[in-house]
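BUG: 3D viewer hangs when loading the predicted structure for this chain

Environment: internal workstation, default settings.
Expected: structure renders.
Actual: progress bar stalls at 90%.

Input used:
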Amino acid sequence: MILKKRKAVTLVEISIGIILTALIISGVMQLFSSGMKDTAKALTHQDNMEAANILMTQIEYDLLRAVEIKEPVWNDTQDGGLWEIQKTEEDNNNSKKTISINYSNNGNNGILRDYGGEKHVFAKGHAVKLSFTHFAVDTSEGNENDKLVEKHGMWVELTVYSNPGNYDEKDDKTFDMRRLIVIRRPF
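Structure tokens produced before the viewer hung:
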């Protein structure tokens, strides 16, 4: 008998090749999938951080120009804030105009800033919790007429949630920020 050389691949060899290929592809797909989930989580957290930072920067800018804090009252905490600033008008007299600034919750769609009737939403599309604590310290040492030595400040607490529908559910993408803003002008 003459020995014939085998040239074909058997069904068992094909099956083993398919199983090994499927295992390798499955492992690679799981690696890509977990990488994509981590990237999405990081991008959501970064978006929350950016929204919080922009809002906090605007609040700080407005508070540093405050000439009167109307809400919250001294040593009180509330979800919104209302204060007044003075703006110099660009006319012949360079007159000063008092403008009210109001920060309030806009539902699950960020924080509404009302600047003398001009409205703007910060952190749009985000569920945001914002609270202000106004404190004042009297360092006048018994001199009731010396109002210039009172120290004012505002604790601003801000939480941007990754889940817009649920304020109570914090996760690893939720971003918290707390800042003490010292108000330079006593009133």
